[in-house]
Structure formats: C-alpha cells, structure tokens
Amino acid sequence: MEAIKCEGLTKHFGSIAAVDNLNLVVGEGAIFGFLGPNGAGKTTTVRMLAGLSRPTRGRAWVLGEAVNPRSVSWRSRMGYLPEEPSFYNWMNGRQFLTYVGELFRMSAIENKKRCDELLEFAGLKEAASRKIGGYSKGMRQRLGLAQALINRPKVLFLDEPCSGLDPIGRREVLDTILRLKGQTTVFMSTHILSDVERICDVVGIIDRGRLVIEEGKDKLLERFAPPVFELHLEGDPQAVRRVLSSLPWVVKYEEEQHGAEVTLRIRTSDMAAAKRELPRIVADSGLGLLRYELVSPSLEDVFIELVGHKAEQ
Amino acid sequence: MTGFGVLLKKELREHLKTYKLLIVVAVFLFFGLGTPLMFHYLPSLMETTGEMKITVPDFTATDVVNEYFGTITQIGLLVVLLVAMGSVARERERGTAMMTLSKPVGHGAFVVSKLAALSIIFGLGIVLGAIACYFYTGILFGELDASSFLIANLLIGLFFLVCIAVTLMCSTLFRSQLAAGGLALVMLLGLWVFSLAGSLETYAPMGVIGWGQRVVAELGNSAWGSLGISLGLVAVCTVLAWQALLRREL
To answer: Residue A150 is inside which H or E element, if any?
Structure first.
C-alpha cells in the first residue's frame, strides 16, 4: 500500500520553481531517502507533504488521505521534524514533550510514560527540567526527533535529521530510524549520502526541483554504479594507459597521481575479461603493484553520475 | 477548533512565564491606583509649585474615573500593540508555529487561543485596575455608582478586544513583528480618527469608550451602533486572521 503519494506537485516562489511536477510514491514501511544538493527543493517538498506549505499545483496524499491544511485527522498519524526544530525556550524539555503529547490528545498517564521513554531515548533525561533555551544544537535536534515520535507515527517526515549532531548522536538517530523499519514509513530528506546508504531502502534524487530518479537503493547502485577496478601502481603508467585505451571492454578510465603513486579506476563492460586480463597488463608493464581491488560502488558515485556535480559530504 | 484547550493553556503559561501578564496587570493597576491619588494630591502639589497661583477645580469621582478611562485606553492601546504584535508573527519567524501546526491542531484554534489568552490577561488587568480605581476613588472622592462603573468597564473591555483582534490579524499577515505592529497602529489610529468625525462616533468602534464615560457621568446617549460594529470587527478580524494563516507559508 502507498503511504505517501504525490502527483504533479509543484511549488513556485515568484518565477522560481522550487519543486517542479514531482510524482512520487513511497510504499508503506519503507525508509525513503530523499537526496539532493542544497537548494534542490527537498525542504519545500517535505513541507508540502506535511501540509505546512501549499503547493502551486498538484496534489499529495499521506496514508490515503489528501494533504490539506484544513484537515487535522491525517496529522494525528504523522510525525514531522523540521531542519531546524524550534521550541518555546521558556519551556523545559519535559514540558515541551508533554505539550506535544497533549496536542495529540494523549491521556495524562500515557503522555507521562511516553515522555519518559522519549527523554531516555533522546539522552535528555538529565536535562529534562532544564529550559530549552539553554540546550545545545544537538540536544535541540534530539528533542525535535523525540517530539516527532511521540504519537508513534505511521508516517514520519524528517528534514535533515542528523544536522548538528556529533558522530555518536548521528549513529543513535540513524539506529532509531532503522528500528522503525516496517512499522513506520520514514521520508528522510538529507544531503548526507552515507546516512542514506546506511539506512534507506528506497532512494529519490531531486535536483533543481525535479525528481531525477526514484528506485530501490540496491537496484540504483547496480544500475548506475557498476563495480570499478582500482589499481594502485608505482611508476609511470604510460604503457598501461596505452593498452587500456585500446581495449573494447574498458568503458571509463580515470587516473589520479599522488606523488610516485598512481591510482587507476577502471569501469568495465565485461567483468570476466577485466578480471582475467588486468593482472597480466600490470605484470607486462613492469610497474610496482601496491594494491589491486574491485571497489563496490557508493551512492556518491550514483549521485555524481545523476546530478552531475560533486555531492556535499 | 481542535486543540483549543491545550493551546489556550500554553498561551496563558507563556504570558505568565514571559512576564507579559505581570506587565499588563501592573500597567492597569498603576493607573487604577495612581489616577485617584494624583487627582487627590494635585491641589496640594500645585500649591507647592511656588509663586504662580493656579486654581485647580474641585474634582468629582466622575472626573477621576473618566480620566482613568482616557489614560488607560491610550496607554493600554500601546501595551496591546507591544504584547500582541508578535503573537503569530514571532511564532512564524522562529518556526514554533510550524512545530505546533504540524500536529493535529486547527489553524482556527491556533488564532482563537491567542485571542482568548490576550483577552484574558487584558481582562484581568481591567478588572484589577477597575477595583483599585473604584475603591480609591470611593475613599478619596465619594462613592461611585457600581453598576455604571461596571458597564463602563465592560465597554472599555470591548475596546481592548477590538485592539487585540486588529493587532492579532496584522500579526498573521507578516513575519516581522515590527511590520505587524506598524500596520496595527495605523489601523487603530484610523479607527480612532473615524470616531472623532462628529456623528460617526456612535458607529465607530472607539465610540464605546465615549459611551462608557457617558454612562459614568449619567449622560445617557448610548452607542449601540459602536457596540455592534465593534463585535462585528472582532469577528471579522478573527476570521481574516485564521484564513490568512491558512494561506501563509509557515
């Protein structure tokens, strides 16, 4: 079943199309990574899907219900974490979570229990009675994630959930998202490719407001980033270069020089031929072989291939 | 109006925690206590000013109360602007409106809870200021008719409700508090000028102040038109604020 769907979703700010004719379907229980460079339209899309921004054109559905700012019923099954979560600084962490729980009409007992759980999860138990105004950026981000989870949402929208977190905090957040797999549909916008690679099973890439591709992560890697042979050699690779340029199974060939060491990255159309012939070509060249490996592709390779410019890490 | 109760509770706590409640009550109490005292000691103060002889008329309880109403409506209007201009604008600017409105909360409830909370704190200020003014005036200038004074305060309350509704509506139109406050000031001054235009006073929202003062002075001349238009204006501003919030980017 579809948890999130949009048809022709478009958002214009003046003459600029922030999101242009977006068609997207996210299946129930999926962890969907919404990738794109800065300014690609990720946040605008998330806001439209969360009912916080009105599309110029097009429609969206969450859990089968049309996204409409006037309707509140679908929002009771949704969680949302903005890129920079904002709080009432005069409240403390527990008061804010209790307030959010009350907005979801949770009973006092249930609300208290859930707040305790989430404060523990967010590592804010000690700081629960401290004013939010005094929280660090990481603490605010964790509190933001906790409030998005308070109603055990069926669909969770996360806009850059790991921004501002230290490596441990980031790992904890990603682990938490992973634990939601199967129970909650997660729509996560980010530009951190390694996060998507680690937890997402479906990936959508957006660039300049347009969806470039939407596919399962593994299929995407298979399709756009086939394995690459990486050779680390010592010496002048002129002879190897000459041989490689004449071979029909070499699709792409890149060279990088680091002092006396040369790295050759070879993409091939015939894996078996490459496996068989590459060691012989190196041996014939008389160069020193420092390393020889078949490198698994990364999402960054796909991203660069599709978006055409270097992703931010 | 989903979520109204929770939002109202949060708004009231916010006014308490951020000292807005204290400031509003302090302003009304200051003028409620200060006006009768000032009128009582004014002749003595004038005598101590030196050579120049200034004759101060004998003040009545009605003079004192009408002065209190005149002062509190002018100063109170500025307090309304300062307290209410950021109600929605600041929440949009900081992003807290987005956090709240992503929950199962109606935009109408969001606006009306703010209107209700501001009305409650200003209502409390009016009540406490009125009690102080009534008792001090009674002690220093003789008793006032309680029912006339009560009616006049209800009319003053309606005037403040109009000011709050207009300011709140302006606050939904802008992300900047200053822009919201500026527009609200221009609109309220416009309404004030409209009320000065002779026969229009009985229909202008600000006409309820004059009606209140006439009630205390037992001069008759009701202004039901002003009352009706004031209530209508509150309703229109609230609906416009709600609709504007629905259409705005959060």
So the answer is: none
Beta strand pairing status for A155-159 and A78-81?
Answer: parallel
Assigned token pair, A112: 């208290």
Query: Which one-letter DSSP state was computed for residue A133?
Result: G
Q: Look at residue B204 in the predicted model and tell me its pLDDT.
A: 80
Q: Does residue B106 sit at the A interface (CB-CB below 8 Å)?
A: yes
Report, in angstroms and rounded to the nearest whole number, the Rg of chain B calculated over CA atoms. 20
For B17-50, b/e burial (b = at least 16 CB within 10 A) is: eeebbebbbebbbebbbbbbebbbeeeeeeeeee
Using CA coordinates, name the residue in chain A closest to B110.
A103
Domains and CATH numbers, chain A: 2-221 (3.40.50.300), 226-296 (3.30.70.100)
d(CA B73, CA B65): 12
ipTM of the modeled complex: 0.89
Which tokens belong to A169? 């905090």
Q: Is the pTM of this model over 0.95?
A: no
Q: Which residues contact A280 (CB under 8 A, 6 or more apart)?
A: none
* B102/A51 CB distance under 8 A: yes
Cβ-Cβ contacts under 8 Å, B106 against chain A: 72
CB contact under 8 Å between B104 and A73, yes or no, is yes
Whole-Å CA distances, A41 to A37, A201, B132: 9, 21, 58
For A191-233, the pLDDT digits (tens) are 888 888 889 999 999 998 999 989 888 887 777 767 788 889 9
In contact, B77 and B209? CB cutoff 8 Å: no
What is the pLDDT, as a whole number, of residue B58?
A: 80
What is the rounded distance in angstroms from the CA atom of residue A193 to the CA atom of residue A11?
A: 25
CB B104 within 8 A of CB A104: yes
What are the residue ranges in chain A where pLDDT is below 50? 310-313
Q: Is A154 on the interface with B (CB under 8 A)?
A: no
